Amino acid sequence: MRQYIPSSTEWVASQVKIYESSGGTKGTTLKGLPVIIVTNIGSKTGVLRKTPLMRVVYGDCYVLVASQGGVPKHPLWYYNLKANPYIDIQDGSKIFSMVAKEITDPKEKQRLWNIAIDAYKPYSDYQQKTERIIPILLAELVQ
Fold it and tell me: What is the pTM assigned to this prediction?
């Protein structure tokens, strides 16, 4: 089993700890909206990393928005998923094994972006704050 190293960002580590220690019954919201926990493998370290992300559902898939609040650089978890797309997503008490792929087709990306904004309105502000194009990934159940 891989070692888990909590985020050095205190609120992230705390949110993950509360979420997981409660079995997904506490710590399941951020800014009043539902979040999921994405467990991935660090692209440089090879250790488990866990990140709370806003819950954006599309059918039985999850839309993962690499916004990082609109800062100039992509979040580290984005690079982790590009290097190893096999992830676990905890949504409340349920955990799903999934594979994430970046969406590059402009029409598909726009469609998923609109779904993401419907779930979490600040995403549109985040894109306006940065010159980088915010990546959209789609996590699908492992077949």
Answer: 0.96
